[in-house]
Amino acid sequence: MRGTSTKSGSRASLAEVADRAGVSISTVSRIVNGIVGRASAETVARVRQAVDELGYRPDRIGRAMRQRQSNVVALLAPNLANPAMSTIAASTEEALRRVGHVMVLCDTHDRADLQDEYLAAMAAQLVRSVIFLGAVASPALRAASEAGEVFLFVNRRNPHDERAPFVGIDNRGAGAAVAAHFLANGHAPLAVIHSDHSSSAVRDRTYGFIDVLTKAGIAPEMLMRLSAPGDDHLDIGYQAAAAIVAAPQRPRAVLCTSDLIAYGAHRLLTEAGLAVPDDVVLVGIDGNPINPWLAPWLSSVVIPYEDYGPVIVDSLERIWAGEDPGERLLPYAFG
């Protein structure tokens, strides 16, 4: 966003204000747009002083154009074949429709290049907001985040700024709940299967699980940490479960950081002649609505994906009002 310096006649930019104040561009953008909750009083004062010294003025014409954008909101999803993602998308579409907005749905397939292509396309179409339903690190997202663009992140936090507005669950708590369940039932040894993806959701679910076990005195050799390359959770679960079958001391219970990973692991285990849950207990995180129909053997941390829509829309409306919605954590249940 550019402005005109009334003191020098040249155009002052957010970058120049940020340099003068000694803060990031995104911090300047939030403060000049009235979002000051994340910054200290001293930082706010320093930014405002730099704005005055440089004569920075927001581009009101550009802002007005943005405010006249269509009533279209874009939702970028990482994998619409995942029932959890499609459930959130359906809930969000319905909630947006109720407030007079139309949703455009794009599947990034967890690819940074596709995510950036869609982000550029949505900007060209002047959509009012972009929702990332599972963002990955990418050059365009990094640049937009550093420039102060405000997006809403769901399930996974912004990989370039984890303080960005977020809707999801306490993923560390979910992983910890599974660990506590395994301990309470005397299951040992234990394992966790996760993707190689470095998202906040995968990281926090895994760390929450491991942290509880470590504090309970579980030795590292009693915990198998398994993964496999690729983005397909079904395939990750299938490949990783081969190590369970081959282990000298087979894990009695396994946390799968998504239900789809559990589906893949179940397929490999049954092909190897093992019964779930009699031989190996699998617990997922998602609570996909198809589980009672297709996976009655699976216990799961149930996330209320069907309730995400109203919370997402409320967060968007706060953003549109110039507020910082912060993080919105929904409850989950283990069952």
TrEMBL record:
Residues 13-50 form the HTH cro/C1-type domain. GO terms for molecular function: DNA-binding transcription factor activity; transcription cis-regulatory region binding. This is LacI family transcriptional regulator. Coiled coil: none annotated. CDD domains: HTH_LacI, PBP1_LacI_sugar_binding-like. Residues 12-67 form the HTH lacI-type domain. Pfam families: LacI, Peripla_BP_1. Keywords: DNA-binding, Plasmid, Transcription, Transcription regulation. InterPro entries: Cro/C1-type_HTH (IPR001387), HTH_LacI (IPR000843), Lambda_DNA-bd_dom_sf (IPR010982), Peripla_BP/Lac1_sug-bd_dom (IPR001761), Peripla_BP_I (IPR028082).
